[in-house]
Specification:
Elements (H helix, E strand, L loop, with lengths): L8 E7 L3 H12 L8 E4 L2 E7 L14 E7 L5 H15 L3 E5 L17
Antiparallel strand pairs: 1-4, 1-5, 2-3, 3-4
Helix pairs in contact: 1-2
């Protein structure tokens, strides 16, 4: 059984704000700038704020309006720190956020799931 974690990507489900304000928050948190397509590049990582195609289709976080797709060019634990910073910034701004990835157990509040029973 292979127990290696995938540090190459993470999806953050988000409720609150709008794409523009969330993109600005992510860019400021990472010390980067965003392009016109809600994409933020920081080092070898890319964060993209998207409308969730499953918005409203589920009662839990899977049905929240937005996602932040986080990817690293080379799978690297550095993505854990960046995702942790983005999650914390969202929570501090009053946004609901839950991460879905292989490394949720390494994130603050286990990626946020315990916050939304």
């Amino acid at each position: 059984m292979n127990t290696a974690k995938d540090y190459g990507d993470c999806q953050i489900f988000l409720r609150g704000g709008n794409r523009e304000s969330v993109t600005a928050l992510v860019a400021a948190t990472l010390g980067a700038s965003a392009d016109d397509h809600y994409m933020i590049r920081s080092g070898r990582m890319v964060f993209e704020v998207r409308d969730n195609p499953d918005d409203g289709l589920a009662a839990d976080f899977i049905g929240w309006p937005f996602t932040i797709e986080a990817e690293a060019d080379d799978p690297d634990p550095v993505l854990v720190e960046a995702v942790a910073r983005v999650l914390t910034a969202c929570w501090n701004r009053g946004l609901d956020a839950v991460a879905a990835c292989d490394f949720e157990d390494e994130l603050p509040d286990l990626g946020g799931l315990p916050r939304y029973p």
